[in-house]
């Protein structure tokens, strides 16, 4: 029977009658009961197919099947190898390196597995999505209170929490040259400022340095342990700045930054401790603080006046110290204090406590004991005299004391010499009064005519006398030399 076009049935197979069941019945060769079947073929209808012909067809198909089986087996082996390689690479992704400035956390299904942070080195964890390895930087980090925003024109701008919102052109200028705010004023939402305790406004810039001392607490508290740290620290510091400036005057905000920095750090750390996030602030520094632009010139004028006044006071204090050192040496503080105490005690009033405190510090003595020791003018004078007679005293006071001692010695010496001379004249007078009187008269005349006295002798009996007076040049030269010698000695 010929094949229909387009049919692909292989060898010719006779059409079997349809029994209505959609299947063609297979009819095997009949055999007699009790006798073995002699047929080795397959009977389909009236036709019988011999099985002896099958081995030849099977022999034709074995090479193709074998090639297909070998190809499938090789493909399966390659697939197994690829799976092994992928599994190895997958496991290798669990190896992580921790650097010196980092700590590592090993997570499995989101739960931290290690009890302490992993230090520097190579560590293995379950790969994602079973596990995760998180590196937390423990080195100090620095942030500023500024964030990137977009203006109305869609341009990126930087907004600082407590500073003027300046354009790029204005940011390159000094603060004193930003004139736009002189007439426009501050714009809410664009310009930042902080209120001080004296109801003034101030513009401040801040730089904060912090570290993570407990990475495990950070991972358990902060959802985004990397991108969420800086914003968290900024918000806490901003609240600390508002709170600290609210209790600080404008002058202290601008001039006394050390105290302000300490208060901001304490307030911000208090908030972080409440969050228990393992973050520690190392420093909070106000890098710049200015009054509003509208009052800048007036404020700087007052500040300059105060600076000039303080400079004048310091100059006067230094000059006073220099003069006192020149006058009394290193004991000038004690002498000045004792003099004031003497005046108070002499007037019967209580000495100033500041003088007693300085004297107690200088003498290393209790103030009450010192006040009891200097309760009378005589005791105070004795203390002053003890200092003046000390060999360590220097300056003009020492020179005056030395000159006074020398003058005292000279006076005593002259008095003793006068007494000895008087005693000698007294003995001579008892023996010859006229001789003593003549001698004293002659000495007196000699003293009178000595020095700058010139004597002119006129012969007796002259009636008319014309005098042309002129000073003796030799005497004038002697007097000039004597005056110069005295000035040098003085």
Descriptive notes:
- This protein is α+β, with helices and mostly antiparallel strands and 490 residues long.
- Among the domains are: 95-137, no CATH class; 141-291, Band 7 domain (Tetrahydropterin Synthase, Chain A, 2-Layer Sandwich); 310-394, no CATH class.
- Helices cover 50% and strands 15% of the residues.
- It contains 15 helices and 13 strands.
- The strands form five sheets. Strands 8, 11, 12 and 13 form a four-stranded antiparallel sheet that branches. It has a three-stranded antiparallel sheet with strand order 5-4-7, with no helix packed on it. Strands 1-2 form a two-stranded antiparallel ribbon.
- Strand 4 (102-108) and strand 5 (111-112) form a beta hairpin.
- The longest helix has 39 residues, at 54-92.
- It is elongated and about 190 Å long.
- Residues 1-40 have low confidence and may be disordered.
Provide a compact summary of the structure.
The protein has 490 residues and is α+β, with helices and mostly antiparallel strands. It has 15 helices and 13 strands.
- The CATH superfamily of the domain at 141-291 is known as Band 7 domain
- Which shape, going by the Cα principal axes? elongated
Unreliably modeled segments: 1-40
Highest CATH level, the class of the domain at 141-291: Alpha Beta
- As a percent range, the share of strand residues is 5-15%
CATH T-level topology of the domain at 141-291:
Tetrahydropterin Synthase, Chain A
Structural class: alpha+beta
């Amino acid at each position: 029977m010929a094949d229909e076009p387009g049919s692909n049935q292989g060898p010719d197979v006779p059409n079997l009658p349809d029994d209505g069941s959609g299947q063609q019945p297979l009819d095997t060769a009949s055999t007699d009961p009790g006798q073995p079947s002699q047929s080795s073929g397959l009977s389909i209808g009236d036709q019988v197919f011999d099985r002896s012909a099958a081995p030849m067809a099977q022999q034709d198909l074995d090479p193709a099947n074998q090639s297909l089986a070998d190809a499938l087996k090789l493909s399966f082996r390659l697939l197994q190898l690829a799976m092994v390689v992928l599994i190895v690479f997958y496991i290798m992704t669990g190896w992580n390196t921790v650097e010196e400035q980092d700590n590592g956390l090993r997570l499995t299904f989101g739960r931290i597995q290690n009890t302490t942070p992993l230090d520097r080195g190579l560590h293995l964890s379950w790969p994602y999505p079973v596990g995760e390895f998180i590196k937390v930087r423990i080195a100090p980090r620095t942030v500023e209170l500024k964030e990137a925003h977009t203006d109305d024109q869609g341009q990126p701008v930087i907004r600082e929490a407590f500073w003027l919102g300046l354009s790029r052109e204005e940011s390159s200028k000094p603060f004193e040259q930003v004139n736009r705010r002189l007439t426009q004023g501050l714009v809410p939402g664009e310009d930042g400022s902080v209120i001080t305790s004296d109801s003034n406004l101030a513009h401040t810039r801040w730089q904060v340095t912090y570290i993570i001392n407990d990475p495990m607490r950070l991972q358990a508290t902060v959802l985004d342990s990397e991108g969420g740290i800086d914003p968290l620290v900024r918000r806490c510091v901003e609240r600390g700045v508002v709170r600290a400036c609210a209790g600080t005057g404008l002058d202290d905000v601008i001039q006394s930054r050390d105290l302000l920095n300490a208060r901001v750090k304490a307030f911000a750390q208090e908030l972080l401790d409440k969050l228990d996030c393992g973050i520690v602030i190392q420093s909070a520094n106000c890098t710049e603080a200015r009054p509003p632009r509208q009052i800048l010139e007036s404020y700087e004028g007052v500040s300059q006046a105060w600076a000039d006044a303080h400079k004048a006071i310091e100059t006067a204090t230094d000059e006073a110290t220099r003069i006192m050192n020149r006058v009394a040496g290193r004991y000038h503080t004690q002498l000045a204090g004792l003099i004031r105490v003497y005046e108070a005690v002499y007037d019967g009033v209580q000495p100033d406590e500041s003088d007693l405190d300085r004297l107690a510090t200088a003498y290393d003595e209790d103030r009450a004991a010192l006040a009891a020791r200097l309760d009378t003018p005589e005791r105070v004078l004795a203390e002053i005299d003890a200092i003046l007679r000390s060999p360590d005293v220097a300056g003009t006071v020492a020179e005056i004391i030395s000159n006074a001692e020398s003058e005292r010695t000279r006076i005593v010496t002259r008095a003793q010499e006068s007494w000895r001379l008087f005693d000698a004249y007294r003995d001579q007078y008892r023996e010859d009064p006229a001789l003593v009187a003549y001698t004293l008269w002659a000495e007196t005349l000699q003293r009178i005519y000595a020095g700058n006295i010139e004597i002119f002798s006129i012969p007796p009996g002259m009636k008319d006398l014309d005098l042309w007076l002129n000073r003796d040049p030799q005497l004038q030269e002697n007097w000039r030399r004597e005056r110069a010698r005295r000035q040098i000695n003085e």
